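Hi R.,

Here's the chain you asked about this morning:
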Amino acid sequence: KWFLDPGGAIEPADEVHVLISPLSRMGHSKDGRDGRGVEIDKDMSQELWSLYIKEAGLTGKMKAYVSDNNSPVGSAYDFMAGMQPGQTLILGKGAKDEADHRFDQAQAWSDKKGYQVDVEIVNTPMMAGGISGTQMRRYVADGDYESFAKYVPLKDPSVAWKIVRPDLNESQSQ
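And here is the predicted structure, written out as tokens:
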């Protein structure tokens, strides 16, 4: 959402594409030793993003879909290949990834391939009260609906909970 209304930090984007990894991510319990864990897969991620986009009124401006490429860099480069010459690709990194240099060669890649796409890399601010995906997966693994619900950007967080914890009965999400 920040890319559509960056508060003057950058020129607002016309549209935002969220590239979801095809690889599952594991969420582990607080201590990581008790054997509890959950797998958050690409279908769950896409369903969650669809809920967020719809509720935020961003349908048509923001699109989330599963990438064919396991690598975030490869996914970005694949996306770039489908862009038109003269368009700008803004690659966003969360504030916690500021030192991550994986996308530093994106402009050189565009130039080498003759895409004529301008590439900008920006560090996006953490949303107010934001939280990492790792911590959210920990809440899911721990069955901690209350903590999970605090950070889900939906009026009814139980809808998201049912996606990530279909094994728990509904009474636990009330």
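One quick note: The first strand starts at residue 16 and ends at 20.

Cheers,
M.
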